[in-house]
Structures are given as structure tokens and as C-alpha cells.
């Protein structure tokens, strides 16, 4: 008898699980060989592509893109435009503007190929190799083949253009930043090679917090403040210059300027402003005081740790406010802080004045009229000073501290606080490109090159920020300078093959199967460990003007949803970054809770990456459950994996959340009650929302388990257990009696709205015990048009992601879950698709109808790129199909693993390496209504409890291909060893 058989034998002597019997049998070989997960997945995914035969055009949008996409988890690309004007729009996971309070695009690469005007269009998004390929054929022999991808392990986008026609192709290549500008002397540059005629690379500085630079007026942020007089010789330095370097001598400082303007004509002159001929200080800008007169100097990201701005001015008249130099960002609105952000040097009643974000200082004496004066603003990291002809005329140190920006109602609006993880601005980055295979020549800020017949030109474009590396500039340059395209291709292919090899599904419904893989492709394109997790629209952001809800982390379901796809498919690495912004927000959350008189953590609803920054007007939206919902994912991952290292990372977050609820819940008549909460946004005053109750039912047992595994806070476990034991139940009531239904008079009941035939004497889950009662009952609707039943939260979420009712719940609770799903019928919702479909699967809704609605959702509400489009949905919709299929293939959150708990018996299906609670990977197959086998891989070595897939039959257990035991009973139980795979099949 081998060691493994002894293990089972030993267990059989100790087992007290009465529904299971174990018999030790002679060693025999297994009769079924499950398919290889890797081979099955790769064979399936290699044939899946999203095909476009007409181009999608660039638009300002507040939703997911309609065109083909690609990415590597950090950099995302949206492909748009006609064949003669191709556009690659770039987004990035960390491209959140702190000053603007939202996500921004990085920029774009625009390729004009006039020979392809009117060409046919055929582009494929190939998810197996993660590439875009295309073919464009025009009249007169012009033809071009495209192949492009974002390298899986470096931020290099490869764009190969092959001339497959009979005439040369001429290409004009232009990089633009997120505002659609091609830069200025501070942001754009070229580096020639030794040949002199070709270019090594061109670069463009980018940032989500770049500011418009205006001379002589305030055009961006605030009201106009036209100057009266002349402005010349403008310089911006990334250091604090000494007073000696600010004098009115004509000598230049030894420090090189970060940005300068000396009268060059390549600027935008507005209104009656003009640039005069050369005078004492170069060619000055003449501003005559009219409201629209100014000179636009482009955009730039200001240095943050130290800064100097200098200019020569000659005032001709004094007015109340006159702007000399402004680099101001106008934040998204509405905002708690809707004022301009950046730097400004101006005159206030003739006196020199300076501003850095919200901190300002003004001198007491006016500058002289009619003569040239050298003015300067200097910031050394602690103090801002103003100078006139080298003499300090004002100074202030009144800048926010770390405590200020992490306070309960503050945003990070400051410069250079060294106690923060990074400065008070968004990332600083660079786009660098190089053309290989053709000689490129510069034409202004564009490149031109020709592709001869049967030749290929390759554009290598790298995007890096200071969030990737302190040495990001050099790394970006080196990545395109030293790029080995065959090696990049080999590494890229290997990464994606390894990615796809982790799990598979194989079902008869081709559309749903394609979108299972397509959803994982999209998630992998916009999320990876070590980078910021995806916001609402991931890194598929290519317009600065219409980023809905600022593209942020909305923590009343949106931010939580994408990881569910990872948890359901054995792709934990995609969700490794999920907790990062939540953990970073903890100091702010503690300040919020304390301000409101509670212990622990309390979070507002909208967050952006950073040390405790939010982008909304410091609002809960009347909900108490913000970070509680955020902890649901942590509890899920713990139940699925039992990973102690993961528990150690997230435990402080969960404990701080429980500290708040320990304090907030009130003991009334022997039950802990959640008062003055809301299950949905903007619905105040509710008692015991179903969502909060369900999430607390996840939180407290998880904390008890984690603290035990970590060996900490033993003294708290009795408190947590007491709250959990005495927590108010879910608000389950007679369905017909539910009032306060969305969209109907408060006193009208569900029974009156939908009719007695749909409610009878059935039970349902109210949204809250008192307060909001139910979402709009879409069971009355028969079409598949999108509708918005809620802002994202209601009682169906107590089923999923709350996991509060399942296969092992009481008959009455399961009846309530099914009735709640039936009445809500949120099949085509603007928000809840990613929670509703899995809830329907768990509740036992007709599985054929679930698949039918999924097909309709794909048909009417998606793009060929596998992106779903809905009014409220974004990246969270990558969870819809992976999670729904997982809950139809297995349910395990209540203790036992149930295989195919809710799948149409007439539909053949198989799957491999789907995670279950307890730390197992599950594989199985259903054929002709019969489960063929169950294969379980143990990742933690835990006891496995399985609801017998063949209830009336005995089950053979195989280890390493050899029969180890025969099990029997409605529920079977056996020990496992970490890393082993066992097979079960009916005798």
C-alpha cells in the first residue's frame, strides 16, 4: 500500500462524517483521462478573434471603447481611424491626475498614409497571441498589412506596417499628448543618429497633470486677467535658483532651464496680442489688456519638489489683476475643490503675486510702470518667495502638511511634502518612439518615412512613468533603442501562452465561450501586479474630455467587480493589485471615521490612487458600506485560497473595517442593528440594508479565521463571534408586502405592482428592513433594452457577491433568493449585470434562461472587441461571464463543493482549473446529462468536502492514476496533500 493510500486509510479510522464511507481497494488504474488544461485552453483561444470590417472613429466618450484594443496590464491601446488616418490611443494604469482628480489619456500616435484613402478595412483583435492584425487595400495598387501588439513584459508597443501593394507608401507619424497637442520646447524632442539624416528617436513628455501654459492672461482655470504691457524671456527651472541668479543682469543662470520661451514664433497668439521684433530681452509678447488677448505656450507638467519661474515684464497700465505667467489645470467638475490648480505669477493692483495650488503670497509695493523688471517665483520645497530684480519682495511657508491632505475632508493640493509617498501631482512620464526599417526625417514635430513595395517599417513606442521607475526616462529610451523584435515577440508569445494555460471552459454555446476568453483578455490588458488596478474604464482611455465618473475607483461595486473574474478563473495575478489603493487610503479612512465619532475605518465612495485621495466632494452617498464592500473581495479570496501571506497583507484593512462596525452597530432587543444606512446611492435613513448585513456576514467569520491563522488578536475573536451570532438577519419578508419600490409610489406594494400571480405567498429579500424596499421589478419587461434599475446596489447582491444564500441554505432562504432574482430581472441593467447574473445562478434560476439572456446581452450590448457597453458599466463587466459560468459549474462558499449545481442537463460542458473555496482547483465534464468525472487539485492540502456528484452511486478516488479508495454517501470527505491532483468517477 502506498503512502497516499495509508493517508486515506488513516482518515477512514478517524472520520466522524456520518454521510461518508470509505473503503480501501486494491490498486487499479483510472478509466478516464481528463483533458489537459493547457492544451485545451490554447487550442480554443487561438481561434478567437474580434473582427472589424469598418473603422471606429475617435470620439469623446464616457464609456468603454468600441474599437479593437490591446494591452499588457499597464499600457492599454485603443485602435481607431480610417486606413489613411490610423490612430493608436494610449492609456496607462497609473495615469490619474491628482490635481485634476481623475483619469487621463497618455496620448496617441497618429499615422497619415494618403495612398490608403478609401481603402477597404479588415482588422482582427486576436486574443490568443494578444495582437491586432489588419489589411487595408486601396485602388491604384496601394495595400498595407498591419501587425501590432503591446509587449507583455515591457511597455513597448510594436507597430509593423508591411507594404503589400505595388506602390510605395508615404507615412507621416505624429505623437500627441493627452490634450491632443504635439508639445513644445519643454515637452518634445528629437535625437538624431550619427547619419544625420535619420532619427534615433523622438520623445514627448506626458502627464495626467500637465497644465496649459499661458502668457499675459489666464485662459485655463479661473476668469481672464489680461496683462497691460510686454512680457519676454520666460524660463521655468526644476530647482530653486538663488537670489543672485534672479537679478536684472542679462547674464544667464548656470542652471539649465526646464522650459523657456524667448519670442519663438511657434506659439499660438490670441486676440489682439502680438509678438514684437527683437528688443532688449528678446522678442516680447505685447498684451493690450483686452479680455481674450494672450499667448499660448503649449502644455507642461510643472516640477514639484522645487520650482523657479522667471520673466521680464514692462507694465504700461495698472489694473486689479494681471496675469503674467500661468500653468493652471482646470479640474473635473463638480468637485469639492473646483478652483484652478498649478502655478501663477501675476500682478494684483500692480503688486507682484504668486500662487502654487491653493497657497498664495503678494508683495506690498507695486512694480514700477514703464520700465523693464525681472520678476521671479521661487519654491524650494518649503517656502515660496517672490523677487523683483533680484530682491525678495514676499515669501510664505503656508503650505499644506501631510496631516492636512490626509484629513477627513481634504485632497492633496500641495507641492513637495516629503512625508507623502510621492509629490502632490500625478505621474511624470514620457512617450518615446523609434522607426526601424525605414529612414525617418523630421518635419516640425512629425516624422516622415516611406515604405517601399514589399518592405516593412516598424514603429517601436515606449511609455514609462515615474511610477514605473525613478529612471523612467532612460529606461524608455533604452527599450526602443535596444529593442530586439524577435526576442520581444518570443517573450510576448510565451507570456500569453502561459496565461491562457491556467484554466479553460468548453461549452456548446460558442458565443458565451468566446466571451469567457475575451473577458479574460480584456482584464489582462488592463491589470497586472505592481501597477495600479483598473479604474472604471481601465487603461482604455483616449479622450480627456468625457471620462465618466473621472474613471476612478467607485467602491460600491465597480472597483470590486473585476477581481471576481480573476477569482473565478485561476488568474489571481490579475487581482494582486486590487487592495493597493484601499490600503493607501487607510490613514484617510481613519481620519474620516474619527471626525464622525467612530473608531476604525470609514471610506468615501470615489477614490483615486495615492495616499488617501478621493475625487468626489467627500461623500458617502448615504452609504456606510464603502470599505465594507471593498473587504468583500478580500474575504472571497481568503475563502477560496486560505493564503496566509495574503491574509497578512489585508488583515489590517479588514480589522479596521470591523473596528468601525463594532462601534457603529447598535444592540437592540438582542440583535445588532445597522441604522441610518443605504443599500443604494442617495437613499438615506434605511435600517439593515441587505447588502450591509450580507457583507458583515462575510467579514466577521473571515476575521476570526485570519486572526487564528496569523496568531493575532485572540482577545477580539469572542467580540467578533458575538456580533456575528447576534447580527440582524437578512430582511426576508413576504414578497407581496414590499413597499417603497423604485419607480412607484412608496405605498404601492410589489403584489399590487406585479400581480398576485408573480408573488403569491412567496418570500423575497427587501433592499432594507425599513427604507428602500426593492429595485424596479423588471420582470414586467419583455424587451432586451438596457434599463437602469439602481445605481449599483440592491438586495440581489446579498446573494452575490454577498454569498449569504446558497445550495446549503434553508428552503425558505433559497425560495427568497430565487423570488428576488425573478422579480428584479436585471438582465440588461446599466449597472448590475456583473452581480445579477451570478446571483441568478446561485439562486437556482432556470439555467437555460440565464444562458439565453447572456447571449442576448452579447448580441445587443457588446462590441467585437468583447467589450460590453452599458450606461453605468465599464471594466467591471469583464466579470459577467467568467463569474456566472463559475457559479453554474461549481458552488462551494458554504462548505461543500457542488459540481454543476445549475447547468442545463441537456448541454454538454467541461471546464478545467476553476477555483473553489478551500484552496482547490476543480475540473469536470458533463455529457448527455451525466457528470463524467471530477478532478480536484489541492493547493493548500486541506480536507476536501464534496457533495456527491453521483448521489446514488459509490465513487472511486484515484491518486496519481491509481485507485485509492471508494467513497459513498450524499456528501463525501477526504484529506488532500498540497499540490496533488485526485480524480473521482462513479463506480
Describe the model.
The protein is globular and about 100 Å long. The chain has 987 residues and is an alpha+beta fold. Strands 2-9-10-11-12-34-31-15-14 form a 9-stranded antiparallel sheet. Helices cover 22% and strands 29% of the residues. The chain contains 19 helices and 53 strands. Strand 14 and strand 15 (199-206) form a beta hairpin. Helix 6 packs across helix 19, helix 10 packs antiparallel against helix 11 (644-664) and helix 11 crosses helix 12 (690-710). The protein starts with a helix and ends with a strand.
Index terms:
987 residues, alpha+beta, nine-stranded antiparallel sheet, eight-stranded antiparallel sheet, 22% helix
What is this entry, summarized?
By secondary structure, this protein is of the alpha+beta class. The protein is built from 19 helices and 53 strands.
Could you give the topology of this structure?
Layout: H1 3-14, E1 21-23, H2 37-45, E2 49-52, E3 69-71, E4 75-80, E5 85-92, E6 96-97, E7 102-103, E8 107-112, E9 122-126, E10 131-137, E11 143-150, E12 156-163, E13 169-177, E14 188-192, E15 199-206, E16 211-215, E17 228-237, E18 259-261, E19 268-270, E20 274-275, E21 285-288, E22 294-300, E23 307-315, E24 321-329, E25 341-348, E26 351-356, E27 359-366, E28 372-379, E29 384-388, E30 391-396, H3 402-405, E31 429-436, E32 441-443, E33 446-451, E34 456-465, H4 472-481, H5 485-500, E35 504-507, H6 510-526, E36 553-554, H7 561-567, H8 580-584, H9 586-595, E37 606-607, H10 626-641, H11 644-664, E38 666-668, E39 671-673, E40 687-689, H12 690-710, H13 717-725, E41 732-734, H14 750-754, H15 756-759, E42 763-765, E43 768-770, H16 811-824, H17 833-843, H18 847-860, H19 880-889, E44 890-891, E45 898-899, E46 909-916, E47 920-927, E48 930-938, E49 944-947, E50 955-959, E51 962-968, E52 971-974, E53 981-986
Antiparallel strand pairs: 1-51, 2-9, 3-4, 4-5, 5-8, 6-7, 8-13, 9-10, 10-11, 11-12, 12-34, 13-33, 14-15, 15-31, 16-22, 16-24, 17-18, 17-21, 17-23, 19-22, 20-21, 23-28, 24-25, 25-26, 26-27, 28-29, 29-30, 31-34, 32-33, 35-46, 36-37, 38-39, 40-43, 41-42, 44-45, 46-47, 47-48, 48-53, 49-52, 50-51, ...
Amino acid at each position: 500500500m502506498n503512502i497516499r493510500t495509508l493517508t486515506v486509510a488513516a482518515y477512514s479510522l478517524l472520520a466522524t462524517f456520518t454521510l461518508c464511507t470509505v473503503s480501501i481497494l486494491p490498486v487499479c488504474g483510472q478509466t478516464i483521462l481528463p483533458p489537459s488544461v493547457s492544451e485545451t485552453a490554447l487550442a480554443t483561444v487561438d481561434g478567437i478573434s474580434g473582427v472589424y470590417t469598418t473603422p471606429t472613429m475617435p470620439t469623446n466618450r464616457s464609456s468603454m471603447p468600441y474599437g479593437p484594443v490591446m494591452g499588457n496590464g499597464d499600457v492599454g491601446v485603443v485602435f481607431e481611424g480610417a486606413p489613411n488616418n490610423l490612430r493608436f490611443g494610449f492609456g496607462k494604469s497609473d495615469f490619474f491626475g491628482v490635481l485634476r482628480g481623475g483619469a487621463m489619456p497618455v496620448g496617441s500616435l497618429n499615422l497619415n498614409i494618403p495612398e490608403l484613402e478609401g481603402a477597404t478595412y479588415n482588422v482582427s483583435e486576436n486574443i490568443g497571441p494578444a495582437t491586432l492584425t489588419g489589411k487595408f487595400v486601396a485602388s491604384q495598387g496601394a495595400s498595407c498589412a498591419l501587425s501590432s501588439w503591446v509587449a507583455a513584459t515591457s511597455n513597448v508597443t510594436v507597430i509593423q506596417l508591411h507594404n503589400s501593394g505595388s506602390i510605395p507608401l508615404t507615412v507621416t507619424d505624429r505623437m500627441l499628448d493627452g490634450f491632443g497637442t504635439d508639445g513644445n520646447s519643454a515637452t518634445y524632442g528629437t535625437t538624431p543618429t550619427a547619419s544625420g539624416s535619420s532619427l534615433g528617436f523622438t520623445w514627448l513628455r506626458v502627464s495626467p497633470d500637465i497644465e496649459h501654459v499661458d502668457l499675459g492672461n489666464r485662459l485655463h482655470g479661473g476668469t481672464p486677467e489680461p496683462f497691460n504691457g510686454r512680457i519676454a524671456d520666460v524660463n521655468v527651472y526644476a530647482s530653486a535658483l538663488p537670489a543672485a541668479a534672479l537679478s536684472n543682469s542679462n547674464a544667464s543662470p548656470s542652471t539649465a532651464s526646464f522650459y523657456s520661451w524667448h519670442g519663438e514664433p511657434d506659439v499660438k497668439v490670441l486676440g489682439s496680442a502680438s509678438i514684437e521684433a527683437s528688443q532688449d530681452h528678446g522678442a516680447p509678447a505685447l498684451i493690450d489688456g483686452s479680455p481674450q488677448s494672450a499667448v499660448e505656450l503649449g502644455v507642461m507638467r510643472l516640477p514639484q519638489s522645487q520650482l523657479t519661474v522667471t520673466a521680464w515684464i514692462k507694465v504700461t497700465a495698472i489694473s486689479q489683476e494681471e496675469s503674467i505667467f500661468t500653468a493652471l489645470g482646470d479640474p473635473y467638475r463638480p468637485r469639492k475643490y473646483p478652483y484652478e490648480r498649478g502655478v501663477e505669477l501675476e500682478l494684483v493692483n500692480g503688486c507682484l503675486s504668486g500662487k502654487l495650488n491653493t497657497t498664495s503670497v503678494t508683495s506690498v509695493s507695486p512694480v514700477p510702470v514703464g520700465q523693464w523688471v525681472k520678476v521671479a517665483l521661487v519654491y524650494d520645497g518649503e517656502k515660496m518667495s517672490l523677487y523683483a530684480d533680484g530682491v525678495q519682495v514676499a515669501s510664505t511657508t503656508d503650505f499644506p502638511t501631510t496631516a492636512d491632505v490626509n484629513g477627513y475632508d481634504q485632497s492633496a493640493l500641495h507641492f513637495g511634502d516629503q512625508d507623502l509617498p510621492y509629490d502632490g501631482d500625478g505621474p511624470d512620464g514620457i512617450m518615446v518612439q523609434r522607426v526601424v526599417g525605414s529612414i525617418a526625417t523630421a518635419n516640425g514635430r512629425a516624422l516622415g518615412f516611406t515604405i517601399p513595395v514589399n518592405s516593412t517599417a516598424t514603429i517601436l513606442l515606449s511609455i514609462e512613468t515615474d511610477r514605473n521607475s525613478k529612471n523612467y526616462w532612460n529606461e524608455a529610451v533604452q527599450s526602443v533603442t535596444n529593442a530586439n523584435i524577435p526576442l520581444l515577440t518570443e517573450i510576448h508569445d510565451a507570456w500569453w501562452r502561459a496565461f491562457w494555460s491556467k484554466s479553460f471552459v468548453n461549452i456548446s454555446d460558442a458565443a458565451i465561450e468566446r466571451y469567457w476568453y475575451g473577458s479574460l483578455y480584456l482584464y489582462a490588458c488592463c491589470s497586472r501586479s505592481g501597477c495600479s488596478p483598473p479604474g472604471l474604464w481601465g487603461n482604455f482611455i483616449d479622450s480627456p474630455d468625457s471620462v465618466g465618473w473621472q474613471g476612478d475607483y467607485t467602491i460600491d461595486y465597480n472597483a470590486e467587480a473585476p477581481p471576481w473574474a480573476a477569482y473565478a478563473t485561476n488568474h489571481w495575478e490579475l487581482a494582486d493589485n486590487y487592495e493597493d489603493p484601499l490600503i493607501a487610503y487607510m490613514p484617510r479612512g481613519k481620519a474620516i471615521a474619527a471626525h464622525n465619532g467612530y473608531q476604525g475605518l470609514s471610506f468615501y465612495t470615489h477614490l483615486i490612487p495615492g495616499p488617501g485621495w478621493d475625487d468626489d466632494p467627500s461623500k458617502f452617498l448615504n452609504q456606510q458600506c464603502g470599505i465594507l464592500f471593498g473587504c468583500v473581495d478580500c474575504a472571497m479570496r481568503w475563502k477560496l485560497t486560505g493564503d496566509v501571506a495574503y491574509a497578512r497583507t489585508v488583515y489590517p484593512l479588514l480589522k479596521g473595517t470591523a473596528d468601525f462596525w463594532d462601534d457603529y452597530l447598535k444592540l437592540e432587543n438582542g440583535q445588532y442593528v445597522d441604522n441610518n444606512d443605504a443599500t443604494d446611492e442617495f437613499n438615506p435613513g434605511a435600517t439593515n440594508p441587505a447588502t450591509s448585513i450580507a457583507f458583515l456576514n462575510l467579514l466577521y467569520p473571515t476575521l476570526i479565521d485570519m486572526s487564528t491563522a496569523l496568531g493575532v488578536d485572540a482577545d477580539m475573536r469572542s467580540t467578533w463571534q458575538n456580533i456575528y451570532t447576534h447580527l440582524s438577519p437578512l430582511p426576508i419578508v413576504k414578497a407581496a408586502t414590499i413597499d417603497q419600490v423604485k419607480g412607484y409610489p412608496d405605498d404601492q406594494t410589489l403584489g399590487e405592482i406585479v400581480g398576485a400571480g408573480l408573488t403569491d405567498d412567496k418570500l423575497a429579500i427587501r433592499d432594507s428592513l425599513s427604507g428602500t424596499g426593492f429595485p424596479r421589478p423588471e420582470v414586467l419587461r419583455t424587451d432586451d433594452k438596457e434599463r437602469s434599475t439602481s445605481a449599483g446596489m440592491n438586495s440581489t447582491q446579498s446573494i452575490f457577491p454577498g454569498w449569504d444564500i446558497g445550495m446549503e441554505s434553508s428552503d425558505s432562504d433559497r425560495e427568497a433568493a430565487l423570488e428576488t432574482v425573478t422579480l428584479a430581472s436585471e438582465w440588461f441593467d446599466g449597472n448590475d449585470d456583473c452581480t445579477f447574473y451570478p446571483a441568478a445562478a446561485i439562486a437556482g434560476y432556470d439555467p437555460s434562461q440565464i444562458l439565453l439572456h447572456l447571449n442576448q446581452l452579447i448580441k445587443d450590448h457588446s462590441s467585437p472587441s468583447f467589450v460590453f457597453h452599458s450606461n453605468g458599466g465599464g471594466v467591471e463587466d469583464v466579470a459577467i461571464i467568467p463569474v456566472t459560468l463559475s457559479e453554474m459549474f461549481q458552488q462551494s462558499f458554504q462548505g461543500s463543493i457542488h459540481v454543476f449545481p445549475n447547468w442545463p442537463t441537456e448541454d454538454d460542458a467541461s471546464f478545467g482549473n476553476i477555483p473553489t473555496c478551500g484552496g482547490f482547483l476543480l475540473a469536470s465534464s458533463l455529457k448527455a446529462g451525466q457528470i463524467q468525472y471530477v478532478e480536484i487539485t489541492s493547493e493548500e492540502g486541506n480536507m476536501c468536502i464534496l457533495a456527491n456528484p453521483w448521489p446514488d452511486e459509490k465513487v472511486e478516488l484515484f491518486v496519481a492514476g491509481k485507485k485509492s479508495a471508494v467513497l459513498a454517501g450524499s456528501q463525501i470527505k477526504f484529506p488532500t496533500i498540497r499540490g496533488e491532483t485526485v480524480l473521482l468517477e462513479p463506480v
